[in-house]
Amino acid sequence: MGPGTGALPPRAFFTSDAASLSLDGAWRFHLSPSAAAAPAGVEREDFDDSGWSTITVPGHWQLQGHGSPAYTNVQYPFPIEPPFVPSDNPTGDHRLTFDLPSGWPSDEPAALRFDGIDSCGRVWLNGAELGVTRGSRLPSEFEVGHLLRPRGNVLVVRVHQWSSGSYLEDQDMWWMSGIFRAVTLLSRPRGGVADFHLHASYDHVSGLGRLSITAAPEVLITVPELGVQDARSAEVPVEPWSAENPRLYDGFVHTAVERVPVRIGFRTVAIEDGVITINGSRVVFRGVNRHEHHPRLGRAVPRETALADVLLMKRHNVNAVRTSHYPPDPHFLQLCDEYGLWVIDECDLETHGFGDLGWEGNPSDDPRWTESYLDRMRRTVERDKNHPSVVMWSLGNEAHTGRNLAAMASWARDRDPSRPVHYEGDRECEYVDVYSRMYAPHEEVEEIGRREDTNARRRTLPFILCEFAHAMGNGPGGMLEYRELFERYRHVQGGFIWEWIDHGLEADGHYAYGGDFGEKIHDGNFVIDGLVFPDRTPSPGLVEFAKVFEPVRITGTAQSIRVESHYDHVSLDHLRFDWVYEVDGAEVASGSLDVPAMTAGEHAELQVPQLPAASGEGWLTVRASLATATTWADAGHVIAWGQIAIAEAAPVSPVTAVELVGVGDVLSLGPGEFDPASGLLTRIGEHPVQGPRLDLWRAPTDNDRGSDAPDDRAWREAGLHRLQHRVIEVGVREKALVVRTRVAPPALGFGMLADYHWTADGGRLRLQLDVTPDGEWPCTLPRLGLRLALPAELTTVEWFGAGPGEAYADSRQAVRTGRFKSTVDDLRTPYVFPQENGNRADARWLQITAGGRGLRVSGEPVFDFTARRWTTEDLDAARHPDELKPREHVHLNLDLAQNGLGTASCGPGVLPQYRLYAQKASFSLTFTPLS
Ligand code: IPT
Question: Residue limits of the Beta galactosidase small chain/ domain (predicted)?
Fold first, then answer.
């Protein structure tokens, strides 16, 4: 249960001008099913590995053809009897023979550094044992200078999948093993920079940066730009570092024999009156939890992928990252320094599975584990202490509470008083500096905001949501209401969405999740809960995040435009403001807007520009975009936007009942033909159709399926997925066709009376649907609307309404009113686990066509629609998107409403104002065939 053995004391991660050699690449590899079955003598230099396969280091063996990944969330996939692990402990032997580059200083010490081995590695160089690593996502260094020779060095690492360390690494992610981060040989010259701790604070009152270095006496710092030369400390006027303006000063930490390039950011983190401030200003974390994940490489995330994450975050208004639940690859933090992200750096620690035993035997309070806990914290803090981006230390995740955590906190505070300590599991806040909760519903956050907490200590602390708005599948809903709380209460300082990326792994033509590798114990698709898909395509959830958390808010009336800055540090000088005026979705004028200089947090009221008179629905869209390119986006990248309603729609002439119903084998009315028995529309103009019929069902989302009392269970118990339609009457009135039905689930007594009232004038057909609940409804409704089947070739979709993306009642900030064009295929959001998706909201009209022929639907005034090539039942039944095969129709849903999304897969459900209840309702649409 101890930490590893033989390693050098932890120190800062840096590169220098001293010699170094990357040992990444192809290694010899052999996997044994257990430690006992592993070959003897692998450490010997003359061991014959010629029959072994090769493996790429860094990498996981399970993703390179040896064994398979396995996913569990909370449960340990082995019996809980710490520190023992299964005898069937997959063991991977890795061997590499390497030469030193010419000029390697052979008489100097050298360190062999492993940035991450999962979960435990025993290391030999040239036959000599160096020690054992534990702490998968933490570095280990071994002294090897005395063992090196110019040619033919033999490095051997025996990695066990399971070790006592596994008990501390029960994070919600794939179990995958191996040397998954870089291996480097570093010359460590005598008299060089062994380690250093840079302190770079900023005094926002004086504007001075204070720089000092804690290190061996011969270590000095030079920052040419600041005129700092061979110093140990300095005080100079500087521009501060912030996530919004990540100003870095390049310098060198040096001794007579070694020079280490450093990038210095001056900033001061403080807690003042229960509020976290940075450089004197309150900050709001608009954050995400980031696991390291790549769909083919797992946690062996290449640098360009880490950069892709940072760029995507910056472009979507993310300003903070919690490195859940372990320190990331060290290069990620360099990117955070450079591009500007606040970081909560979390230690590699989670013992969640003990929760299933009521925390009986939890290592967090067991003194036998103290050294392991402290070791992990030391290695986190020492490695990452010089990063300006790191503004808080986190002890770990879901390890309950106990003395070992308290010991980590006090060690960290002692070692680095410049950063607050975070840990969500300390619910009483006995040893943390920040009160943190995960998935607290809005009302709880509101209570915390009002300082109504019964716990006196917590009432004095800043509050953050270290996890909120679970981004599993379609959702999360309710982000806007969280933002409102972050703005209402100064000490409620934002949060971190769970989570950044879906951990899907490429396999069998789709993204695999738990169970897809035949695991006996697994947690299904709970690992697919990110704002980006496994290939990092932004999901609608990320687009919504970017809008909800935009740092500038633009609102207004027909007279005035309000621009609010929600930046914490920078002014609006880097933005330009442009406007476009559209009438019925067509641009009629545009221009740029003069916005006065504004510092962080200010607002201004501006006059609406002179707009041309035009008849129709007029919307003014104002966009704030980057005036010049930054390191993370081009000039013109839109940071924020707002839409202001200027003119109302011109009235459309209503359909007046003029056509007579024709009675024969079919009933005919205007452009429509109906089946006399069912009353269903069978043809409109030249197009055969089926429907429209009342529809209340949707393919449950992960959030519908979540929680202890999931909505989808109530819906299925109410039979909403198998409603039966009984025709009460197909009534021919003179100028109307009235179809009265009762729609109800089998075996149950309640239902819905649905009356269809059809009228026509010339080429248009109008439907009024009236629904009336019959009996007591036990649950909410997934949707209330109509479905109809159209010819498969109608795949071009155009609409005037909200777009371009999908939108639901509680996740619809990111859509704007406009005219949009797409295809049935592109309307789909291919969630890794199939579920309801693709709803387009508030359509005034919709045209679904092929070569200009097809159908137009108009609302009174609006409707939502979803179009797909399969049925809702197909979608409900599918477990992976590639199971969905186009049917012989395009299926179109036209909805009055859908239930909101919520975030019940982990967290609060749909907020009351977004729930859809069975109640009396009327819904009218006009259908026009296009030919
Ligand atoms: C929370 C975990 O911290 C996180 O790792 C993840 O598992 C998340 O849940 C769900 O996806 S813990 C939970 C008990 C709220």
Answer: 666-928
